[in-house]
Amino acid sequence: MSAISATRPRADRTSAPKDQAPEPPYTARRYGAGFWTTAAVFVTAMAFSTVPTPLYPLYQAHDGFSTFTVTVVFAVYAVGVLTSLLLAGHLSDWLGRKKVMASALALQLLAAALFLATSSLPVLIVARLVTGLGVGMLTATATAYLQELHSAHRPGSSTRRFEIVSTVANIGGLGLGPVVAGVLAQYLGAPLRLPYAVFVVLLLTGVAAIALTPETVRKPDVRPVYRPQRVGSTHGVYGYLEAGAAGFTSMAVFGLFTSVVPGFVGGTLHHPSRALAGLVVFAVFGAAAVAQTGTGRLGARTRWYVGLLAQAVGMAVLAVGMRLTSLPVFLLAGIISGAGAGVLFKSAVGHVAGAAAPARRGEALAGLFFVSYLGLALLPVGLGVASRSMSVTDATTWFTAVVLVLLAAVAVRTRHSGPGAASVGAGSAR
């Protein structure tokens, strides 16, 4: 039995406890429909958050700002995510999943309206901040919601479906946004307007869909006193530190490709196609989603080390590819490191979602996502700052070295913390 099997609450295998029981009860079929509806909305919202990625060169040409300014815009988005995770990511545990998800989608719609209003830099910065606030509210809430809808639809079954769908929706959605935006911008008119108009329609559809999905949280009789999200191993989840470190390094890799690809492909490699930039980003996140699905039957310990190794190899190949200024090698590095980061991130999310007490699942996941998005913010922003005093290639080499050191530390920590931490991966292949 894995560590997760030993720590998973009984409620996940039978029915939800009193504080999580839906009121009134719904049929299993409706929970199943709600599961897939929530997954589709999750994909849409995460895709919207990366729509600007292939469009940054167009914004630069429009306003004449530097590559470093793009890093600032990226940092603002990360600040929004972290702020929201810290202040609101855990509120769905007692406000309800539907209410918080609807609020997150409303923020995304507000951001889309700002993008549509004007393409000026100040509005772009505000829109990215609002986008980050919505994503921070959404990630932990949607993940917890999917876990509970899955358990209600298939009581006592393996959590493998939840683990795959939740992480593929998250990471796959992040990869879908750039390719949709890139293709629309490359082949249709109004490249700084049309992608956002398309997502306004999709997000509005998502709001209506969530309204029809059954709630999985019963509001407490006495509303808890509000406090910001707690981050750390205080959630009663064994291996929480290792899961957080895995999430940190995984998101750092995704942040690297999200922030570097448009400038590197369009500038250094002289391929200005917006569609190509979007496809390269999609390849990274797509590889993550495929790897998450393909490793579902591996044992937890095996999957954990596969993720660590693939991510490390991919980062090493990336340093070589950038020095060779080779698009094929750069793309190969993205696919390998993306696959490793995806598997590792899936392991971390599955462990925390399964091991946390149901009444604190949203809180525990919000803490994990907070630490993960620190990686998304700190290392890529550090890369942008470093690129002001050295070439992007040299800065990326240093970035790669930092990530490799972190991965080695996670591997050592896992190995010497006992079999429970070593099997921190998302559920055993039971």
Care to describe what's here?
With 430 residues, the protein is mainly alpha-helical. The chain contains 16 helices and no strands. The protein has helices spanning 3-7, 28-49, 56-63, 67-87, 92-95, 97-117, 121-153, 160-187, 194-211, 240-268, 274-294, 300-324, 327-355, 361-386, 392-416, 419-422. Helix 13 packs antiparallel against helix 14 (361-386). The longest helix is centred in the first third of the chain and has 33 residues, at 121-153. Residues 1-24 and 418-430 have low confidence and may be disordered.
How would you briefly describe this protein structure?
It is built from 16 helices and no strands. The chain has helices spanning 3-7, 28-49, 56-63, 67-87, 92-95, 97-117, 121-153, 160-187, 194-211, 240-268, 274-294, 300-324, 327-355, 361-386, 392-416, 419-422.
